[in-house]
Specification:
The structure holds two protein chains of two kinds.
Chain A (H helix, E strand, L loop, with lengths): L4 H21 L8 H21 L8
Helix pairs in contact in A: 1-2
Chain B lengths: L1 H18 L8 E2 L4 E7 L2 E3 L10 E4 L6 E8 L6 E7 L2 H6 L6 E8 L7 E7 H8 L5 E11 L2 E12 L6 H20 L7
Parallel strand pairs in B: 4-10
Antiparallel strand pairs in B: 1-10, 2-3, 2-5, 5-8, 6-7, 6-9, 9-10
Amino acid sequence: MRGHPIAGAVGGFFFGVFLALILQQFGLRSLNDPLSFFGLPILFLTVGLLLAWWAPFGRRST
Amino acid sequence: MKTSRVLLSVGAAMAIVVAVPTAAMAGIDPPGACDGAATIEGAVYTPANDTTDNPVVVPADRDGIIIPYTGMVIFENKGHSGKIYLDTPITQVFGETTGRIPVASWSHSNEGDERATTGTYSLDQFWEDLGFRITGLLRMSGKHNASGGSCSGFVFVKFTGNPLGTPIGIVAVVGGVITGAIVIWAGVPRRGR
């Protein structure tokens, strides 16, 4: 992995938690919905790991 | 180009999660054993408001709201007790008895076996007891026990108002921005790579 996998996993997980909370706060989804409360953290943990593996940001072309 | 594809994928994933409707569930168990209604700003709500797209709407940004309600059971109602509470994420993870926000509770010997009641509920008192205001979509559950049986149910409640005016809303948005930045940073190559 070229990026930061631990930051990607931990940051992604908690981003999913906060996103679920934001959706709840704005009345878009309930936290009682497993897709929101469990699905989003798992989804964004995966996204964070994928980003760390891909590391597409800030690369300079050679 | 790759960066824009990543952001597009993340945005699409978020859009799917927002768009998929949450599952509808029955509001009263056992069906018909109890019933009730509450009137908030002219709108009458019943146990039928048990889906996220048909919630009980409660203004969280206004003071002085009094909610008239009625309730009834069909079984013998002596020695009754009951509770109504809001479920939180802690309830979601650790089970029904943990992390609930109490809304109301009652108990009475009720030797006369009265099976219906009416009353009013002060939303201001609820906010005062809670200590802060909340917004958004929450599940509200209740249970009533008596000599002749028991009844449980739930509705979804949407507290309307500005989330950024509540402590939970502020924590959610600030936390989302910080952790979102960490996720983006995770996609920056380490030095020497």
